[in-house]
């Protein structure tokens, strides 16, 4: 995720920014697999990422991995790096279509939705 202080893109599992050391916001350990399990995203959903003005399409798998061309990537960050050839915050770079809303959002939108669901359940 991007550091709130310096905008440096950190791997999702980091608790602190690798560049400036600021604490990173908690993601609740949400993975793409969790989003599929919660029904927020579906296996087979198209994920798009923009590269030099074009949308590149990959496919979300049931186990939360990302299939792009002939390879499978473990998560949003690995997939984004593979496609773009540079690091970016995979949770913001990738977009997926929200079937009920009929428009696409960054993956972080779905992650927030799941975190909200979880909060609701624990109260
Ligand atoms: Zn930072």
> What ranges have pLDDT less than 50 throughout 5 or more consecutive residues?
none
For the biggest β-sheet, the strand order reads 4-3-2-1-5-6
Average pLDDT works out at 86
Tell me what portion of residues adopts beta-strand conformation.
Answer: 15-25%
What is the tally of helical segments?
A: 4
Terminal-residue CA separation: 27 Å
The general outline is: globular
Helix content: 25-40%
How many DSSP E strands?
6
**Helix/strand order, N-terminal first:** HEEEEHHEEH
What small ligands are held by the chains? zinc ion
Task: Provide key terms for this protein.
globular; alpha+beta; binds zinc ion; six-stranded antiparallel β-sheet; 123 residues
Verbal overview:
28% of the residues lie in helices and 22% in strands. The protein has 123 residues and is of the alpha+beta class. The protein has a domain at 32-115. Strands 4-3-2-1-5-6 form a six-stranded antiparallel β-sheet. The two termini are 27 Å apart. The mean pLDDT is 86. Zinc ion binds next to loops.
